[in-house]
Design brief:
This protein has seven helices and seven strands, in the order αααβαββαββααββ. With about 325 residues, it is an alpha+beta fold. It is elongated. Helix 2 packs antiparallel against helix 3 and helix 5 packs antiparallel against helix 7. About 60% of the residues lie in helices and about 10% in strands. It binds adenosine-5'-triphosphate and magnesium ion. The site of magnesium ion (MG) has 4 residues, from helix 5. The site of magnesium ion has 4 residues, from helix 5.
């Protein structure tokens, strides 16, 4: 659909440019013919009145020179108008084309988001329902109840993370009021790593947390940055590959770094992944779950804290997300 629309748009652009060129050439030749006829008539008239002895003498007359001057003026006017019109039409169509392509890309992202969110919402709800039904219908041992309950908590956690991300993204776009205060970022990262280690016991997480000066920031928003980056590293990395998280004090900023040994992010995708709903690949072929909101939220929050984000390639493979906050 989007491909055919793109070709249709290119066809319209080509048609308009050709039509403009054709009308300009037509106007130019008609103008030429009109002046030619005017000059011939004037020459005949002057010969009839005896002002010139033959039509060939006409070219030396003042009337001819005036008409020729007027013709040249009209000629320059037509050519320059045609050039300006063509440039204007091309610029206009280029903008329209860009807007349409942007709209198409946005629609595709929103469609992907709807597909993934439907799945993301349905599966934990269905899992929780099944767990409760099983607990209700069967006589279970204490051990089994504990197992089912922790599965239920995991499902609810998934749902909570999803809903939090959606709410956060919506608030950031409309009315999120940052509550800026002095924050010990290193302590915040340490606490989140502890929480993540108990949530994902199989994940190998190496930490290197330096003592840093406090930064001015919104604690809730900063937690969202930390969690989104670490959870991405976990999600996109095979389970037995270690991740490393570090915080370092630089001269006038702190550097928070999350490095993984996953598949890495291709260079052409590095800028795009911060767009809302953007996920690499498409919904049919993707194995990991997500809505494409995480990095959009990270980017918005880091910008609001006057920080910056860099994505680097890890060695031998994988990704390093580096976030700096001034302090
Ligand atoms: P959500 O975070 O909303 O649950 P998500 O993880 O798909 O969904 P983002 O966090 O915004 O969305 O990430 C966007 C895309 O960037 C991901 O779909 C993934 O393709 C890619 N990506 C992000 N982090 C990594 C990483 N550490 N390694 C490889 N790819 C990554
Ligand atoms: Mg994510």
């Amino acid at each position: 659909m989007s491909r055919s629309l793109k070709w249709l748009m290119l066809g319209v652009i080509a048609y308009v440019v050709l039509a403009c060129s054709w009308w300009s050439v037509l106007l130019y030749t008609k103008n030429q013919d009109a002046y030619q006829a005017k000059m011939e008539l004037q020459a005949i008239g002057m010969a009839a009145e005896g002002l010139i002895s033959s039509p060939s003498q006409y070219k030396q007359t003042k009337q001819y020179k005036e008409l020729e001057f007027e013709y040249k003026r009209q000629e320059i006017m037509i050519i320059s108008e045609a050039i300006v019109l063509l440039i204007g039409v091309c610029i206009g169509l280029w903008f329209v084309n860009r807007l349409i392509l942007k709209e198409i890309a946005q629609n595709r992202l929103q469609k992907n988001f709807l597909l993934s969110i439907t799945h993301e919402l349905k599966s934990p709800i269905a899992a929780s329902k099944l767990i409760f039904e099983t607990i209700l219908r069967r006589r279970l041992s204490q051990e089994q109840i504990q197992q089912f309950s922790s599965d239920g908590i995991r499902s609810s956690d998934r749902l909570l993370t999803l809903v939090n991300n959606i709410l956060m993204a919506a608030k950031l776009e409309s009315s999120y009021a940052y509550n800026m205060d002095s924050v010990n970022f290193t302590r915040l990262v340490g606490e989140q790593i502890d929480a993540i280690e108990s949530k994902y016991p199989d994940v190998i997480l190496e930490r290197s947390l330096e003592k840093t000066r406090d930064i001015k920031g919104d604690q809730t928003a900063l937690v969202s940055v930390i969690l989104n980056l670490i959870e991405n590293a976990i999600k996109y990395t095979p389970i037995d590959n270690p991740l490393s998280v570090s915080v370092e004090q630089l001269d006038e900023s702190i550097c928070f770094q999350v490095a993984d040994l996953g598949p890495g992010i291709p260079d052409e995708e590095k800028k795009q992944i911060f767009a809302k709903f953007y996920r690499i690949g498409n919904e049919d072929t993707r194995r990991t779950k997500g809505t494409g909101l995480g990095l959009f939220i990270v980017n918005e929050i880091v910008s609001a804290h006057k920080g910056s984000i860099q994505i680097k390639n890890n060695t031998p493979h994988g990704t390093v997300f580096q976030v700096s906050f001034p302090n």
